[in-house]
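Dear support,

I submitted the protein below through the web form. The confirmation email said the job was done, but the results page showed an empty box. After a refresh the structure appeared. I'm attaching both so you can tell me whether what I see now is the final result or a partial one.
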Amino acid sequence: MEVVLLLVSILLLFGQYDCALPIVYLADSCNSTVQASNGGFIEPDKRLLYNSNLDCSTVLTADPGNRFLLRFYRFNLEEPVNGVCVDHLTIYDGLDRLSPLSAALCGRTKVADIVSSNNSINFGFMTDGDGSTNGFEIFYSVFTDAPCTVDQFACNNSRCIDAALKCDSYNMCGDNSDETDCDVVVIEDTGLSAAAIAGIVAGSLCLVLLIMAVIRAIIHRYQSNQLLKQLLDEMSKQPTTNEYSDKDFWGDKKPIEE
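What the results page shows now:
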């Protein structure tokens, strides 16, 4: 019960930092157009390892006048074979594959931020039939160029984002100006806020406590079963009949009859 209460307390404490940004999975949105939110993530698949033999073209689009900022938190595709990418991601500006914003990206690499010139961006993801890795995680944010409206936050780099996105623990502007003077600190290398990392640590600690509690319960039950078995063994060794005969009890003399 104490462990359950601890888990509930941790969830209540850190639940306020769960931004729950939407995730677009390229395998699920293959050859289709997805309406973008103000910010979210792009990943190859819901599974740990992406599928083979994919040839997907997924378009992410926003309202006219908006542009996209892409920031790569993780990128790990299959290594090139003879210098040629066998699994690769190529990002294009616009609805089609005519204006590439990147080369064919593959292997394990650090990719610089990418900015679109219009309100649509195309993700071309291709894989072969042999081998896969844990893929990539790309964060995107939607912005307009200055001047900003009253409903927008003015970034220091002359970009404008939705005012509700300020201090949400994600670097929506690209220069982190939307996360300054906030209680939540963004950890750039991981894409997680300090509070989110603390929540993960606390959750891991709670999991350890749960495992310890289960192990303790198993040990206690085992010891109880062993004690019960020992008691039953001792009882089985005890005599079930009276060891004393009349002679032993009364001696050689017979009791005096009245």
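Response: this is the final, complete result; the empty box was a page-load delay. The domain at 21-167 is CATH 2.60.120.290 (Jelly Rolls).
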